[in-house]
Amino acid sequence: MSKKIFKNLDEQIDILKSRGLVITDIEKTKDILLRENYFFISGYRHLFMKSYKETNFIPGTTFEELYAMFVFDRKVRNIFFKNLLIVENNIKSLISYELSKNYGFKEKDYLNPKNFSHDPMKVRQVHDVLNKVKRQIRVNGKQHSATMHYITNYGYIPLWILVKVLSFGIVSELYNILEDEDQNTIAKFYNLDSETLGIYLTILSNYRNLCAHEDILYDHRTQKGIPDNKYHNLLNIEMTDGEYDYGKNDLFSVVIIMKYLLTSSEFREFIYEIGYEIDILEGKTNILPINNFLNKIGFPDNWRDITSID
């Protein structure tokens, strides 16, 4: 097995140039590679190659274009992240309200296993998720000012306070073990069926972690896709072998989810901000036509039209 060894800045530049990347300002390129990390920037190289099997850049590709893609991904990742946090806060509020209303505001009440799914197939899942929640109380309860305040002064933590220390992942798992009636009430808020909302939350949790850890966003694909819906149809998204080409398990699927979960004004701003960054990128890249780039990240050519669809 070959080993990956350390490469200094000059060697990193030599590798990029040997693969056909045009570098005109060596010192500026070194500065960017040192600040941003060669590995992270080179993660976008496949966009500028004819296929994933290629090792050389499309002739004429410049370092500025490669770096512009890196910056674009960062900017868009931040846009998605702040909107994911809005959804995260909303779903935490809905779940805490529903459980507190129905089962009480003390841990021994709202975390009683009897309040959750009685599906024999979910017995272990209910046990595991509730244990995760209780572990967060033990580990983080005294590290957060609000939870510490309730523990010290009242001896318990109401769920509407506890959700502040629960991850989006745990909250999405919590939703998926709720009683059907509770799931339906929460899903109805978004005009969705309970199963679809469960899928949406799982996918958003995955992307939320991706954004929080500043991982590459543009080519990420989730294992499970979102169900076909009216936006796939009304946008006339192309199909291959009976499956939609875009908006199933890619970045555009998150846009579709956001259409359901954000308010109209929030969603319009979300789309505007993404479009603004795409327009900037288009002005900085000559090798890759913008529509080709959009398709590679999962966006159909008419992706902005989703804003005007009710």
Keywords:
310 residues, mainly alpha, two-stranded antiparallel ribbon, 1% strand, globular
Overall geometry comes to globular
N-to-C CA distance: 55 Å
In N-to-C order, the SSE pattern is HHHHHHHHHHHHEEHHH
- The secondary-structure class comes to mainly alpha
Number-wise, the strands total: 2
Mean pLDDT: 93
User: How large, in whole angstroms, is the Cα Rg?
Assistant: 23 Å
Uncertain segments are: none
Strand content: under 5%
Provide a count of the helices.
15
> Looking across the biggest beta sheet, what order are the strands in?
1-2
How would you sum up the major sheet?
A: 2 strands, antiparallel
- Residues in helices, as a percent range: 55-70%
Word description of this protein:
It contains 15 helices and two strands. β1 and β2 (243-244) form a beta hairpin. A two-stranded antiparallel sheet has the order 1-2. With 310 residues, it is mostly helical.
Short description:
With 310 residues, this protein is mainly alpha-helical. Helix content is 59%, strand content 1%.
SSE order and pairing:
Layout: H1 9-18, H2 26-36, H3 38-42, H4 63-103, H5 107-110, H6 123-140, H7 145-153, H8 159-162, H9 168-176, H10 180-189, H11 194-212, H12 230-234, E1 239-240, E2 243-244, H13 251-261, H14 264-284, H15 290-296
Antiparallel strand pairs: 1-2
